[in-house]
Write a structure and sequence with these properties.
92% of the residues lie in helices and 0% in strands. The protein is mainly alpha-helical. It is rod-shaped.
Amino acid sequence: MTPHDNARAAEMAAAMQKAVTDLTEIAENQKTLIDIYVETTRLLQGMMETQRQALARLADGSL
């Protein structure tokens, strides 16, 4: 390989390493977003169940 080829290969290796680092960060952020979505969904389901129970009590006249 020529010195130019070596320099180009080094640039490409650095670019690939940055791409791997960026993709790893994106994956971590996506996992965080999924965790937030799951927790939000769980909380909303709890709120809906509470509302359902309150509406059932209202319908029964126990509230």
